[in-house]
Fold this sequence. Notes:
By secondary structure, this protein is mainly β. The chain is built from one helix and 23 strands. The chain has one helix spanning about 105-110; strands spanning about 5-10, 10-15, 20-25, 35, 45-50, 55-60, 65, 70, 75, 80-85, 90-95, 135, 140-145, 155-160, 165-170, 170-180, 180-190, 195, 200, 205, 215, 220-225, 230. The strands form five sheets. The chain has a six-stranded antiparallel β-sheet with strand order 2-1-11-10-7-8, with no helix packed on it. Strands 14-13-22-21-18-19 form a six-stranded antiparallel β-sheet, with no helix packed on it. Strands 4-3-5-6-9 form a five-stranded mixed β-sheet. The two termini are about 30 Å apart.
Amino acid sequence: MAKLVLSLNGTVLDQRFIDQASISIGRGANNDLVINDPQLSREHARIVTVGEDQIVEDLASSNGTRVNGSPLQRQILQHRDTIELGSHRLLYLSSRVAADVELDRTLLIKALPRHGTAAEGAPVAAVPALRAAKIKLPEGNVRVLASSGAHPVGKSVALDRVVVTFGSPGEQLAVITRRPQGYFLTHVEGQNYPRVNQQSIGAAPRALRDGDLIEAAGYRLEFRLAELAEHK
């Protein structure tokens, strides 16, 4: 189980395991992890568990969030990443040590853009180099059949990113993740689990197949899988 270590000026203040699907972070008392720092917004950031990965995202905070010195929007956490929140630091420790990082997890990490340079003294996570052999990644999209959100009916949404979210944070949220083995639909939060072909997927990630009909977070989607694209 992954763990977060909260510190201020090098002094450890708290430690907690990531034992729930979503952990909200901020100075507001309603957060799962409350940090008393005037530089933080009331709802500043959150960490969402998707399968065996943790995804950190900034919640449009006033002063922003950084990971290893780089501005954050949303990315998958790596072992020993440091999340910078105002004057405080959160060290992410994964139960999956670097030597056991699987190829698909490496690809997910490599696919995320990073801007800027790492902060001086920030811990560096070793990421295995990609194999020289060609790696086949899936290409797919979803067509919106019904929607209560931002994507209009009839629009096709390309699934060309690591994580595509549907729904509203704090209410009902589902994600589609892209891996070498294919696309996976995962429930993140909300009372109702996503449905594929009118069957609930439950809490576990569900592999998607061409033509699947998805109902999730106020959307009805048709999943289409294109031919595999080769990447070196």
